[in-house]
UniProtKB/TrEMBL annotation:
Annotated source species: Actinomadura namibiensis
Keywords recorded for this protein, A-Z: Oxidoreductase
EC number: 1.6.5.2
Family membership noted in the UniProt record: Belongs to the WrbA family.
GO molecular function, one term: FMN binding
Record bears the keyword Oxidoreductase: yes
InterPro entries per the UniProt record, alphabetical: Flavodoxin/NO_synth, Flavoprotein-like_sf, Flavoprotein_WrbA-like, FMN_Rdtase-like_dom
Gene Ontology annotations for the cellular component aspect, listed alphabetically: membrane
Enzyme class: oxidoreductase
Highest taxon listed in the record's lineage: Bacteria
Name of the protein in its database record: NAD(P)H dehydrogenase (Quinone)
Amino acid sequence: MSVERPVRVAVVYYSATGTVFALAKAAATAAEKAGAEVRLRRVRELAPEEAIASNQGWAENAAATQHVVEASLDDLEWADVILFGAPTRFGLPAAQLKQFIDTAGGLWARGKLVDKVVSSFTSTATAHGGQESTILAINNTFYHWGAIIVPPGYADPVQFQMGNPYGTSHVSNNGEVGPGEVELVAIGFQTTRAVEVAAALKAGRYALETS
């Protein structure tokens, strides 16, 4: 393993009306600025076409994000850092993201997800709509993987404005309000922190291997 290889970051998300997509794009941009190789990936939509068509915001976002490559298990194996983002559904991550996670059993069984640096983010329609429980539910996956969870904590001043140490979260007012400056700065910080931790781990492993 070469310590000179950039950290690899996979930002894997599900977004119905575009709020989580906006956070995911900001995360990908922050990772690139931190010197990482980045894959921005959307998970497969499971909802029927008639349900999507019945909501203008949902339909518009589906059309606008067709260019984003669909997530695959190769993205998880490739990455040093994995960020999962999903809106909440009854205090849990949306089924679309959970379905993708459920396909990773083979990688898990072969130990391919151990020591990945991981973090998560979310959006809710209303305040107190399950932001923390959604992030904690996503993180339950990481415990089983043996991954290394890197939360934003209150490790940057923006976190005292954003207010969620578990991961970046946003109140979308039923999809009508996109992330503001505070949320975008917060997801940038969260991502950069994860990249920095992964780089330090990689450098440490390289030092051990070459000592």
